[in-house]
Amino acid sequence: MKKVTVCQIVMVLFLCVSLAVSPGLMAQGTPEAPAGEEGPLFRPEEIDQLMAPIALYPDSLLAQVLAASTYPLEVVQAARFVKEKKELKGEKLMQAAKDKDWDPSVKAMLEFPDVLLMMDEKIEWTEKLGDAFLSQQKDVMASAQRLRKKAEESGNLKTTKEQKVVVEQETKTIIIEPANPQVVYVPSYSPTVVYGAWPYPAYPPYPVYPYGYVAGAAFTFAAGVAIGAAWGGYGGWGCGWGNNEVDVNVNRQNSFTQNNYNNSQKYQKKEGGSGKNQNWQHNPEHRKGAQYKDQRTAQKFGQQGPGSGPKAKTSDARGYGQGPGDKGGGRPQTSDLSRGAGEKGGGKPQTSDLSRGGGDQGGGRPQTSDASRAGGKESALSGSGKGGSERASSNRGQESRSSASRSSGSAGGSKSSGGGASRGGGGGGGRR
User: Fold this and answer.
1) For the purposes of burial, counting CB atoms within 10 Å of the CB of 164, is it exposed (0-12), middle (13-18) or buried (19 or more)?
2) Whole-angstrom Cα distance, residue 144 to residue 413?
3) Tag placement on the chain: N or C end, fewer CB within 10 Å?
4) Whole-angstrom Cα distance, residue 161 to residue 267?
5) Cα 164 from Cα 58, distance rounded (Å)
6) Is the pTM of this model over 0.85?
7) In 10 A of CB 144, how many CB atoms?
8) Residue 391 half-sphere exposure, CB side, CA atoms within 13 Å?
9) Distance in angstroms (rounded) separating the CA atoms of residues 178 and 55
10) On the CB side of 32, how many CA atoms lie within 13 Å of its CA?
């Protein structure tokens, strides 16, 4: 009898402890942010979803895209510049942009206009990729290796006349380099084809395809991009796979900035004790008011986080500099970000397809509520949505005026003047 009683007590205690455990701790595969820090981390399958369209890029270009994605407003500005200067290519385009103080990772994207325009058109994907890279850089780099391994095992990643694929036997790290160091070929592929069976049905690869993509083709290449000494020998980005990080070659970075900036001294780097390569560091100055994903990431870079701090200007987001009388506005509208400079109206981006991450069906107007979400958070590039508060203030003003009128009609003299004061206050509230 005593044995039965003891067993019952143990079972009751076990149930009590189980019920007391937070559901979030019981869930499998959902990484949480450290205690006291906002924002859940990205799941591995979410990161694979974001990385699928670019994981097979050459290491140097992959590293550059990851760095540039952390500056979404400058990506938009650079893409608008390319559209405005569509008659210029290569070195001439770089020289025309010499006065632009974009981050070097963004300015170097001018030499890869198709990739830059893709990042601009799929700005929600770009922003979310940047969020993941800023908060979980090592996880993002590890995702690239997972996806490369899947592509290799599926027989779709191999050495060609455009690229060289090297598998380090000891670490099993897969490195992708241009076959010719002076020419970079951008691969064009469908993630749903090149990786074989996708293991995460709930997180299908984002439908991000560069120009030149041929539907159904496993792996093709766009025209090669010459990256010789004419424009500074590229930007010097590379993948430090040993530590799952992005490295910057100081010599090549300095050569690039010297040739492509009027104020190159601002971007010159000094060699450290570890040699010519340095770990890439995010520069919040080039964030241009675009908010970070959560408070934890914002504080990491000395910012205030969502809902506070300076907002990005719509004029800047469209690719224009600050003009006379520009006193700064609210945050840019997603539709403005996705339209070309000077475009009147035009089609809106298919943000609903981007948010779902499924097949890109095109057509239709975007679901702006989806476009403004990124991992459950408000998009840093979505509209600030102040209309509701303005209407509420207006309604309060109308109610105040109505109350004043009733007070004036039912009482006279001194009460009427009191109603006037109320009316003045109500009008002020309405104007706010």
Assistant:
1) middle
2) 78
3) N
4) 35
5) 9
6) no
7) 26
8) 4
9) 15
10) 11
Strand partners, 187: 221
Where would I find the beta strands (DSSP E) of 37-182?
Answer: 163-167, 174-178
Please name the amino acid found at residue 51. M
- Mind listing the pLDDT tens digit for each residue in 345-389? 444 444 444 444 444 443 344 444 443 343 444 444 544 344 444
**Quick one: CA torsion of 195, 201, 203, 206, rounded to 10 degrees?**
50
Least confident of 64-68, 159-163, 318-322: 318-322
Task: Give me 164's structure tokens.
Answer: 């060289």
The predicted-structure confidence for 55-102, as pLDDT tens digits, reads as follows 999 999 999 999 999 999 999 999 999 999 999 988 899 999 999 999
Question: In this structure, how many other beta carbons lie within 10 angstroms of the beta carbon of residue 226?
Answer: 14
Question: What is the number of alpha carbons within 13 Å of residue 40 lying toward its C-beta?
Answer: 15
Neighbours of 197 (CB within 10 A): 7
Where do the H-state alpha helices sit in 207-278?
250-260
Look at residue 188 and give its three-state secondary structure.
strand
Which residues are registered as beta bridge partners of 184?
A: 225
Alpha-carbon span 315 to 321, nearest angstrom: 7
